[in-house]
Automatic annotation (TrEMBL):
This protein's name: Uncharacterized protein
Taxonomic source organism: Nannocystis pusilla
Keyword Transmembrane: yes
Keywords assigned: Membrane, Transmembrane, Transmembrane helix
Residues annotated as transmembrane: 129-147, 159-179, 216-248, 260-283, 303-324, 336-356, 368-388, 400-419, 425-450, 462-480
Length: 729
């Protein structure tokens, strides 16, 4: 118990600061942001007010065009499913209603939301710590149970030690440490896999020994495995492989096996149904991207019906196979054992071939096992493969399905190629294959030491065990301080993001500096919407969208990278001339990032952030022709008790001044004049159309900058909509 406690404390201590990854567009960023959205709103799916057309002055048609939302034919299965893409990681589910669906499952974000409600935004990612703790306990129990079920009494006596060795291998493995520190679903899926295997073997042992609770343990094992399918879409492939293996391996613990199979099939079926209903269209796109299955686009109702039919078919097949004769049952088990052995042999051949041919470890075309070899050393990988082969050869009917699943996991990891140095996509396999190889290595060490003790005595076997243990653990320990990066590493301090977005009112429009789209818009748009509820325009904003919002009185804010030092700035626009802005807030945005290019070796962490400025666009519209429009609230306008005066502005000679009043405004006597260095100059009034703007003519001679004064003699408060200066028609 003391060793178990020490290893658990050490493992948890290494993982006590999970990354507060909040960037949009990446898996881990979407998980955290969706979790914060759930905690903040109580809703599972976000709603974009811009898409819904709920932002004043921004027509929905303009936003749909900016997001390139294409209407689907009425008979298309994609209607209401994939009309467009808001940003990386978020799909438009219903553009007219503004509903978005994250391209990932929701179980992990729900955990983050619950944690945030109790511990606050900055600690919302801390469920990763108990997830690893559960994985560690399950791994210890699994290795111990495998040793207790061994036919060698010397191995059974060391069951606790074998469990501790496996736990040490997991706790000190740099790849497991990397995964445990990032907010990816592999953390919860790994715990589900290990807990299901442990509970299943404990259920079989309880039934063989006649102890109560065997069925309960088996049901819990099946539900734990199904929880992995609720967490990660690729886990459904593991569930299919395990279900087929359970059908072929009919063991003597029949009641617990049937309970495990039923819970596994029913739970996984429900997981796929929720994936279709709540994570569409990610479920089928992930199957195409990661398992090379042709992309399917059935309607949700059809997909749900096929899923339920497949689950029922598996349950009926299990009932039918109960009547198999003993020779057929033996043949099925033998076939499963041969298949698992061939999978391991193929994985070993692929590894040897890659090692023989060599390769550029800094190149993008790598395999997962090469990553394991580089970050864990050759001995753990060799022990794991040999131990897995020994398990395939010796496994009984109860353990054989789990051994076959482990062989499938190793084979998929061996065949997976195209992994970048940072192996962003390797994590799908690393999280599963590292525990499988660790348990196999620990059990193999137990058998080796038992053989050595039988032949050479306890003293020499103890020395051999110490040497093997050091050779197994030292390579990972040597690499433990070395951080594992991927190209898109970018972590945030939640307090810094709060400091950026707290200045943006809820009824405003947030745009991003289009001169650096990858740095600001692509990274911060999703956090602005999901974590902070801001109406952030993720697509490049059109000038007419911004102009419409300004005309309607919607505050428009611009987040930039701190390009200009002045508090009042000019921001160029290719189509609509410069926008005038005033700085609302400034700060320094820290975002640690791996300094690397695609396929390169990251050598250090650099700050991918920098200074930022939040600016509010002035309620003015300027044209390259010299024409402009001012609106109430503009920084260029100073209100007076009976009118307003502008700052000195460039006024084109011979231009026309237009003042538009609200509909139904009271009758007032309104005059316009220029305030120049030589004194006031009254402007001549021009005829106006019914319900048209008031018109004045500027002098035909060239003017320097001058202030424009509007005076109104009204019996009530003077109100106006906008003032324009434009060349005469």
């Amino acid at each position: 118990m003391l060793g178990l406690g020490v290893l658990l404390v050490a493992g948890v201590g290494l993982r006590m600061c999970p990354s507060p990854y909040l960037q949009g567009g990446q898996d881990q960023g979407i998980y955290v942001n969706v979790g914060h959205h759930i905690a903040r709103t109580g809703r599972l799916r976000p709603v974009d007010r811009l898409l819904r057309g709920a932002v004043r002055g921004v027509p929905q048609a303009d936003v749909l065009a900016a997001y390139r939302v294409q209407p689907q034919p009425e008979d298309s299965p994609l209607v209401g499913v994939r009309e467009g893409r808001w940003t990386a990681g978020l799909h438009i589910e219903d553009a007219r209603a503004g509903r978005l669906v994250p391209a990932f499952f929701h179980l992990m974000p729900v955990w983050f939301a619950m944690c945030e409600l109790d511990w606050g935004f900055a600690r919302s990612t801390w469920p990763l710590v108990p997830f690893w703790l559960l994985s560690a306990l399950a791994l210890f129990g699994l290795a111990r149970r495998l040793a207790l079920d061994s036919g060698d009494p010397r191995v059974r006596r060391r069951a606790g030690t074998i469990g501790l060795v496996a736990l040490a291998g997991l706790a000190l493995h740099p790849l497991d440490l990397w995964i445990s520190s990032f907010t990816v679903t592999e953390n919860l899926a790994r715990a589900s896999l290990l807990a299901a295997a442990w509970l299943s073997l404990e259920a079989g042992a309880a039934e063989r020994d006649g102890r109560p609770g065997a069925r309960l343990l088996a049901v819990l094992g099946g539900l734990c495995f199904a929880a992995g399918a609720f967490t990660r879409g690729s886990f459904v492939a593991h569930a299919i492989a395990l279900a087929l293996a359970l059908l072929l391996a009919r063991d003597e613990a029949s009641r617990s096996r049937r309970a495990l199979f039923a819970a596994l099939v029913v739970g996984t079926t429900l997981a796929v149904v929720q994936a279709v209903l709540h994570s569409w269209p990610y479920f089928f796109s992930a199957a195409a991207n990661h398992f090379h299955i042709p992309r399917l686009t059935p309607r949700p109702a059809v997909a749900v019906a096929w899923t339920i039919a497949a689950g029922v078919a598996l349950l009926l097949a299990d009932l039918a196979l109960r009547r198999l004769s003993a020779p057929l049952r033996n043949w099925a088990r033998r076939s499963l054992r041969v298949g698992a052995g061939l999978a391991l042999a193929l994985a070993a051949c692929v590894l040897v071939q890659r090692a023989w041919l060599g390769g550029d470890e800094t190149g993008p075309d790598q395999q997962v096992l090469a990553v394991l070899l580089r970050h864990g050393g050759p001995l753990p990988l060799l022990l794991g493969l040999v131990g897995m082969g020994l398990a395939v050869r010796r496994a009984d009917a109860q353990r054989l399905p789990w051994v076959a699943l482990a062989a499938v996991i190793v084979l998929t990891a061996a065949l997976k190629s195209g992994v970048r140095y940072e192996f962003y996509y390797a994590r799908y396999f690393v999280a599963d294959v590292v525990p499988a190889l660790t348990v196999a290595s620990a059990c193999l060490l137990g058998h080796i030491i038992a053989r050595l003790e039988h032949r050479h005595g306890p003293r020499r076997s103890a020395l051999a065990f110490a040497a093997l243990l050091l050779a197994w653990l030292l390579p990972p320990l040597r690499l433990l301080p070395r951080e594992v990066y991927w190209t898109r590493d970018l972590a945030d301090d939640p307090a810094e993001l709060v400091g950026i977005f707290e200045h943006v009112p809820e009824d405003s429009l947030l745009v991003f500096d289009d001169r650096a789209p990858g740095r600001w818009r692509g990274l911060l748009a999703a956090p602005a919407l999901l974590s902070f509820g801001k109406s952030a325009l993720a697509a490049p904003p059109g000038g007419h969208i911004v102009e419409g919002a300004l005309k309607a009185g919607t505050p428009v804010f611009l987040l930039s990278g701190g390009w200009e030092p002045a508090d009042r700035q000019l921001w160029p626009s290719a189509a609509h001339g410069p926008w005038r802005t005033r700085v609302v807030a400034r700060g320094i945005y820290h975002a640690p990032r791996a300094e690397t290019v695609e396929g390169g070796v990251p050598t250090r962490i650099v700050d991918g952030g920098g200074p930022w400025e939040l600016q509010q666009l002035d309620r003015s519209v300027w044209r390259s022709s010299g024409a402009f429009s001012l609106y109430p609230g503009s920084m260029f306008v100073a209100a007076t008790p009976a009118g307003f005066v502008t700052e000195p502005l460039p006024l084109p000679a011979g231009a026309r001044v237009e003042l538009r009043l609200p509909a139904g405004a009271p009758t007032c006597e309104i005059t316009a004049a220029l305030h120049t260095d030589t004194g006031p100059l009254a402007l001549a009034s021009l005829p106006r159309e019914p319900d048209g703007p008031l018109l004045w003519a500027l002098p035909a001679s060239p003017l320097a900058t001058a202030a424009l004064a509007i005076a109104a003699d009204c019996g009530s408060a003077f109100a106006w909509r906008w003032l324009s200066v434009r060349p005469a028609p």
